Structures
1.
Amino acid sequence: MNRRLTLVSSVAGAVLVALDGTVLTVAQPSLQRALHASFVQVQWTSTAYLVAVASLLVFAGRLGDRYGHRRVFGLGMLGFGAASAGVGLAPGIGWVIGLRVAQGVFGALLQPATLGMLRAAFPPERLAMPLAVRTSAIGLAAAAGPLLGGALVSGPGWRAVFFLGVLPAVGFGLVALAPPGPDRPPAARAPLDLPGALFLAVALACLVHTLVALPASGAAVAAGLGGALLAGATFVRHERRTARPLLPPEVIGSPAVAAALGMLVAASASLFGTLFVETYVLQRRLALDPFQSALRSLPLAVLMVLSAPLCPVLLRRVGARWTAAAATAVLALGVLVLAAATGALALGGAFALLGAGFGTVMVAATHVVVRHAEVAVAGVAGGLQQTALNVGPVIGVAAGTALMGAGPRTALLVLAAVAAIAVPAARVLPAPGVASITNTADKRVRRGIPAGR
């Protein structure tokens, strides 16, 4: 697959997943009425997907490293499209929930592959712009999703929402699997570490389910978090002892990668927690209808789309360290402004700061994670990045839910602090002019010599 087609495919996969999440939110009330479902059952249409996708992303990335990202991407797209069509034809809410689990499984397959394909196709020094294009496309999808979903629900009905991505998913899936075959996997195929994958999946599933289910009883929260801690500790113990761990030491042992992942978790938690809280502020305190609320927040999507392509320029001139630090600080500032904003101008400015900060830090931190991974483990790196961007929003919304009792202003101040605390982590990111640690490995791969592990 050539570079242009690889970029288009990567963008298509990322947009498909982003659109699915935004249009589902719009469709849920209509879906509930049509299928005579309870509120808890409708919540599970989102929860089931989140638990499935978050628990499998890293293992799916490992599958891409072993069997080829193009092949895994193609299977993920075809499966995602088939599951989407199944939801659109589902006769009852139980079928919808089950098929949403299937969507989560196939979504987990395709998401790390979208980054793994880019890492394999582009040299490290040219990787920032493809990542920026991908981020801008996600921003556009986030902006267009509610409008498109609303139009479809109001017209053909909620089932049309799920048919929206079927043809693109099938088309790109078939292209990815067409001859001359998938991209070349590493010559030495290491074991998949199935026990490690199972322990990690259980830990993440328990964590995500517990956070999504908040507020819940103390016993349920304790059981969920206890299960996550136990599975997580077992996973760490297993990884230290196994000869072929699921998470290669060269990936998780890098301070820069760890810092970038932490910044992605903090930034996404701050942003999505803020959006959750501000929805209540706009619609209840300021008495705006959903459409007016969407207009107030539109600068977020616009600035996210515009800031992402500017990030590669900043990375070249000042490096990932200062770019990520400044972007995270801008995000925190946007939350602070939002905590005091009531007028349309102030709200628009605050949302613009959120979009500019998050769009930039997403590109900068992702660039560090993906670039610092050898091609042979790019899928695992992509899986970790996607896990951070799935777990972060869950943490942010859970925090926003827990803090709403103290008032929206208090909740927003805490969420601003979440982003601000992550700023010092940028100190370990690469400075301007620092060469990628993967250059040697990349050259060896291009010359036909397997990269060292």
Note: Residues 435-453 have pLDDT under 50 and may be disordered.
2.
Amino acid sequence: MPAPRKSSDRYRSMAHYFGALIRDLRDSYESRVGEPLTMSHLAARTGYSASMIGQIERGETLPESGARVESLDDALHAGGQLKTLWPLVQRLGHRPLEELAATTKRINPGYRENAPCALAGGDDMERRHLFQLAGWGLLAQSPIFTNGEHIRQMLERSLGTAEGRALDHWEAVCADHTHALLAQPATEALDDLLVDLAILQQQMSIATPEQSARLQRIAAWMSTMHANLLTRLGEYGPARRWWRTARQAADASHDADMRVWVRGAEAVFGLYSPRPVETVLTLARDAQTLAAGRTTPGLLQAVGAEAQALAVMGRRQEARESVRHLHDLVDRSSPDGQVGWSSDCTWFVSSWVYSFEGATESGREARDKTLAQSPAYQNAANVRLHEAISVASSGGHNEALRLVTQLLADLDPAYRSRMITHTARRVLDTVPSDRRAALPALPDYRAALNAPTST
């Protein structure tokens, strides 16, 4: 077996580092797994040509998707190393690490002090330090690096005042992130959330047994928000994995209400992903069973998801019954203001169900009440798309497509999330397939759906 090769170029950029890591994993495959792995073998297992594998290993090109990275990770028995590093590689790519080191000097003028490099080992050691930061999870998004977040965290550790020591602090952090979900574009909200997830992970690693349960509850809450944001960005595979993490954290916390809330939220967001609607219905009903008769925000989310899934499936009477059940639960429990539920949510679910059945007046009332009460740009855009669904369900196919086209054109690209475009695509689903090609509004509708966003 050849010894793992070293390259003087591996610290030139994240692309070069990523390629060198793949090469090291391939070279060490025989000692780790028990059989050799040639470049041709790796190519056959991943669907690449051998020449393309060579280009990736040399850092000349990058895999074109997360799915490709996952196949490389699996084929190399990398244990998730490539998948973990991939978000950073995507964002920094071939950007020279000298530029990142220079950014560090600008952020903290004393970084190099009076010597050529404050880190022993010179420039190469400085670049290695960047990868150490990446290993801490503090460079998962480039804004975290460029705004000096990693320096702030190291400073707090040096001072012994590292953020998150007080458990009550995390409740306020989660409340802030919840507000950000309602008001900010997904990419902006994600940057700050990733910073706090990294800090939380550090605190959990040193927590006492008494602290662990509360921190696990916070981990479930923050993981749910992360899965929420990934769904908005159309990162459905990573979102599913974060939902799993959220469930596991909630279960470990032994907080019954959090366990239901995570599962209810997963059912809701499943409606905006490629998951089969039958799976969403199962998730929603499993969450209701877990609630064991307790009326909590999680139960309300689960009942709402059930009603919406039934509406998509065309099971109108059952969907109506679920909506009535939801209103009864809300009337009896007065959940407004509790974490995970607000008054506009009830009317949002009603708007969805009534729109799919073409109930014009009931749908309009529900939309108006949602818009009057909703603080979230997601809900505001989506209920306007519910109107288009209602119009299409009533036979106004061309008009419905025009409504969607106009709404998407008016929406700032930063706020045009995949959840919104997913609902926009449901409008066309309500049009019989044999009538679509003849609709004059179809080309503009498709162009609006495929317009670039800033997310």
Note: The mean pLDDT is 83.
3.
Amino acid sequence: MRAHTDGCLAAAQRRLYGDQVRWFRTSVVVDNLGPEATATHHSLAEVRARHRTQIAEWRRLRVRAVNEATALLTRRP
């Protein structure tokens, strides 16, 4: 898997998440928890437990993005 590192979307991700590479890596893991559970014949809870570090990082980056977006949208011109 790969992501663009230039262009508008990449710039927005860098601005919101602070670290586009970390965001991409953690979101790929989190987005594929269900398929991993299916492929490995483990429960989703087991797969989540195995990836708790990446899930925590994903949540931290999401909070940062929400805070950054809120600040941008509420800033006075």
Note: The longest helix spans residues 52-74.
